[in-house]
């Protein structure tokens, strides 16, 4: 046992980059997947609509921790070797894809039908309608809930510690095992999460208010 | 008010033959037969729910008809057709609620379809757009967003946006119904000018002054049927059907 010192603090701060990197990768992966899910969910092809709906239901209806366990252990059973980093990235990306997909589906559906009709009447096809008419309007609506979900996602990366990925929370456990000063260690870690997430929450709230004013 | 000036009409550009359409069990269009010639101006009126909007929305296939034939500009509209875009490129439509793209400026609204559908270069699309904005009397609003304009101005932009595709046929679906009274005239004036330029027009509207002034034929619809299709003179002064007389009695000033 040793006392909690500067070295430990630096170790924790160094682990922040893994939390941020995992958040970033999961957000990018989740965005790509979420866009596909949202487009399938709002599209005209029935099979894709059902598949997307099933995907969303499945991932919203099970705990993220189970999803991470499955992402970690299932590839091993199938003979693929995944390290905790890849498993966490894949699990969190799928998780994010389900939630972002649902948020963005809502945003796409809020765009009035008249926008579709006018662009159809002008001869635009689906891809052009989406890209130039519908998505630009949906994005504005989607920014506040998307940033809100990003905050959730950053906090959710702490679960990756359980499958052995050394990010901020796992680093804290390691430090605590050596120093046994849980209040100091976990208090500091909570503060670090807060410092990362709070500005995003503020930003989300400000965008939401701006949207409310604009829609008046 | 003067009756429409006689003018020469061209070939048939729109044919509807025995057209029927259902919403579930409810039949919105019943055996609709209509030929429209190039340059012809048609006004369609009738009580709400009579199928007049549905009729013109079938012409650019915003709605699909269930029976009968529709031929627009030489192309028959069929279920699952692949070249519907060819028809839509040639048929402009103006909506009751304008449906401008709120995230784009007036100019961008006008150049989007020419650039993305026709592949027109930006500079040329902008030149055309400014020309048509001039024609609807709002060239100075090109840089504004739709939300910054009055209803009448928005509807004139919507007309310009359609015209930028150089359509051969223009459809108007109650273009003045959502406007404050003082803005109706500025939109109708633009439509009259468009009619005088020789555009083929099908207008769903209750503006009977407009009908008298520019229509070659006024069509009265009721319960999904075309009840009467006559020149304005006959339509307003000697309508054949009792239903038409009752309708005119309700909407014309006494």
UniProtKB/TrEMBL annotation, chain A:
NCBIfam families: HEQRo_perm_3TM (TIGR01726)
Protein name: Amino acid ABC transporter permease
Pfam family of the protein (one): BPD_transp_1
Membrane topology (UniProt): Multi-pass membrane protein
Cellular component aspect of the GO annotation: ATP-binding cassette (ABC) transporter complex
UniProt keyword annotations, A-Z: Cell membrane, Membrane, Transmembrane, Transmembrane helix, Transport
Compartment annotation: Cell inner membrane; Cell membrane
Molecular function GO terms recorded: transmembrane transporter activity
GO biological process: one example: amino acid transport
Domain ABC transmembrane type-1, residue spans: 16-204
Key word Membrane present: yes
InterPro entries named among the record's database cross-references: AA_ABC_transptr_permease_3TM (IPR010065), ArtM/GltK/GlnP/TcyL/YhdX-like (IPR043429), MetI-like (IPR000515), MetI-like_sf (IPR035906)
Family from the record: Belongs to the binding-protein-dependent transport system permease family. HisMQ subfamily.
CDD domains according to UniProt: TM_PBP2
Domain of life, per lineage: Bacteria
Spans through the membrane: 20-40, 47-73, 85-104, 141-163, 183-203
PROSITE patterns listed in its UniProt record: ABC_TM1
Record has Transport as a keyword: yes
TrEMBL record, chain B:
UniProt xrefs under Pfam families: ABC_tran
Protein name (record): Amino acid ABC transporter ATP-binding protein
One of the record's GO molecular function terms: ATP hydrolysis activity
Domain ABC transporter: 14-248
Gene source species: Roseomonas acroporae
Record keywords, A-Z: ATP-binding, Nucleotide-binding, Transport
The keyword Transport is assigned to this record: yes
Family note: Belongs to the ABC transporter superfamily.
